[in-house]
Amino acid sequence: MNVRRRRISGIAVTAATALGLGTLSACSSDSSAAGNTDKFDVVASFYPMEYLAEQIGGDHVNVTTLTEPGQEPHDLELSAKQTAQMGEADAVLYLKSLQPAVDEAIAQSDVKTKIDAASLTKLEDHGNVEHDHGGEEHADEHAEEEHSEGGEHALDPHVWLDPVKYAEIAQGLAESFEKADPDHADDYRKNAEALAKKLSGLDTAFKDGLAKTDSKVFFTNHAAFGYLAERYGLTQEAINGLDPESEPSPARIKELQEEAKADGVTTVFYETLVSDKTAKTLAKDAGLKTDVLDPLEGITDKSKGEDYVGVMEANLKALETALGAK
Questions:
Q1: What is the distance between the alpha carbons of residues 312 and 116, in angstroms, rounded to a whole number?
Q2: d(Cα 311, Cα 132) in Å, to the nearest integer?
Q3: Cα separation of 229 and 158, whole Å?
Q4: What is the Cα–Cα distance from 21 to 231, expressed in whole angstroms?
Q5: Closest to 94 in 3D by CA, of 157, 17, 13
Q6: CA distance 270 to 320
Q7: Are 42 and 92 in contact (CB under 8 A)?
Q8: Taking burial as the number of CB atoms within 10 A of a residue's CB, which of 2, 50, 105, 277 is the most buried?
Q9: pLDDT score at 7
C-alpha cells in the first residue's frame, strides 16, 4: 500500500538533542567488554539491534552496545576505545545508513562477521510525498526543501518499527549467528522461533487494534513511523523544522489546525529522546492533545515499557486513543 506522507514544513522540531556521549557499555547479563569473554561476543549499534542479538543469542552471547541509553543514535560519535573494542568482537550488528560514524568504523574494522540489518529486509523510500493541498507549485517547493535537507531521497532506515520487517531481520540474524557460531545453532534457531511468535503477536495486535478508527492520520515530530503507517494503513504527518527552541509562526499554527480538522487529528506525538517543548506549544495553540509515540531508538527510565515489545504495546495504545479506535 502506498500511504501518503504529507509534511507541514516550517514548524520547528528536530530529532536530535545535545546528549553526552559515553563509552562502550555492556547491556546483557554479562557485562564484560566485547572480545574478552568465552561467549560469542556481539557489538550492536543501538537498541533495536541489541534487543535482537540478546533475544536470539540468549545465554550464548555477550552483547555490548555502541549507543548508551538516552543517547540519540543518529548523530553518534565513537570513541577510540569503542572502535578498538568493536574490532575484538566476534560479530557486529548494525543498520547501515542510520549512524554514519558506525558505518565508517565497521567498514574499517577487521571483525569477521559484519551483519547489516538493512540487507536482511527490504528498505523503502518514504520521502515521496503526495500532497492534498497546494497543487504542483507547493509540491515543487517541497521537493526543493527535501533536496536541500538531504540531497536525494534516501531509503528510510526506521524499519524496526514494523514488526513484520523486524521479524525478517531477526530471522536473517539467527541464520548469521548459526553460521558464525555453529556449536549453538540449535539454540539460536529455537530462540528465533520464540521471538518470531512474539513479533507475530504484536503484528496481530496492531492489525486488530487499528482496523477501525475515526481517523487514520497522526502527527509526529520525527518521521520515523513510515513503515508502521504503511503496514497498518495509517498516514504519518511528520512535523519537521529548524530549531527545537524556535516558535512556529501563526500561519503554521493555522495550517496545523486546518490539517487537524480535515483529518480528524486529535494528538501531536513527541518522543522520549527529544524535547517536548515545541510539540506541547503546537498542541496548545491548535487545541490538540499530546502523547508519546516512541521510535524505540533507546530504552530509558522514561520509556513506557521495559523492552521492545513493551514499548510497542504502549505505542499501540497511544495510537488507538489518538485515532479513536473502536
A1: 23
A2: 32
A3: 12
A4: 34
A5: 157
A6: 16
A7: yes
A8: 50
A9: 37
